[in-house]
Write a structure and sequence with these properties.
Number of strands: 9
Order of helices and strands: HHEEEEEEEEHE
Strand order of the largest sheet: 1-3-4-5-6-7-8-9
Helix content: 10-25%
Shape: elongated
Radius of gyration: 21 Å
Length: about 230
């Protein structure tokens, strides 16, 4: 998959590089641009163990492992052109579906898995720094902060000592950092982008049950590959 993505991007860059300069005033004619995004995600979950990890209750939990799954998102773009090299932008509506599993390994070989499923509504505020435009492409880096709400949080789900439920706070803040390419076509701008989007602080909801008490903190992370059309 990585080779395919690199190959497609290489073809796109070579095509716009050889073509005549498309819409040279694109970044100057309008101070505000709108667009949409298709986003592929890979969710990760960093966690820390409670300092009493091996001594909780009957000391039955031997280890915890995590498994990550790909997800999908869509969004709308509002981009404010500040000057030749700087933009301010936000993704006004973004829904990202992601899943991360925590598997609890018990002494004797038994396992139980807590599924942490997420459907996010995000509002990031990002600063974009662009390189000098070369014919029909330019590079950029992007970074900023955002608010994220998880519609599928288990915050209110009923818990018990036998249910492997780990709750995450539905409302969190995150930081974003990434890079991409602006490719200029006659009627639109196409921008492939890779971005890391990580929660700030732990999102874990503490409770009295083993599946949560074994954890010191949970830190959701996302790697996002976006295709922006403006």
């Amino acid at each position: 998959m990585k080779k395919l993505i690199i190959g497609v991007l290489s073809v796109l860059v070579s095509q716009v590089s050889l073509a005549q300069m498309n819409d040279p005033l694109y970044d100057l004619n309008q101070k505000v641009h709108f667009g949409f995004s298709i986003i592929g995600t890979q969710g990760k979950m960093k966690f820390t163990r409670n300092q009493n990890f091996f001594t909780i209750d009957n000391d039955t939990i031997d280890n915890i492992t995590s498994k990550n799954y790909p997800g999908l998102g869509v969004g709308g773009i509002m981009n404010f052109h500040l000057n030749e090299f700087w933009d301010l932008r936000t993704m006004v509506i973004v829904q990202v579906m992601s899943q991360r599993d925590l598997t609890y390994h018990f002494k004797g070989g038994a396992k139980k898995t807590a599924m942490l499923q997420s459907t996010y509504f995000e509002i990031p505020l990002l600063v974009k720094y662009k390189s000098v435009r070369h014919k029909n492409f330019r590079c950029y880096v992007i970074g900023g902060l955002g608010y994220r709400y998880n519609f599928t949080s288990d915050a209110e789900t009923q818990r018990s000592s036998s249910k492997p439920i780990v709750g995450l706070h539905p409302s969190t803040f995150n930081y974003d950092v990434g890079f991409g390419l602006d490719l200029y076509y006659p009627y639109f701008k196409f921008s492939p982008e890779i971005k890391i989007s990580n929660d700030i602080g732990s999102a874990l909801i503490s409770d009295k049950y083993n599946f949560t008490r074994t954890l010191g903190g949970l830190y959701p992370k996302l790697i996002q590959f976006s295709l922006h059309f403006e």
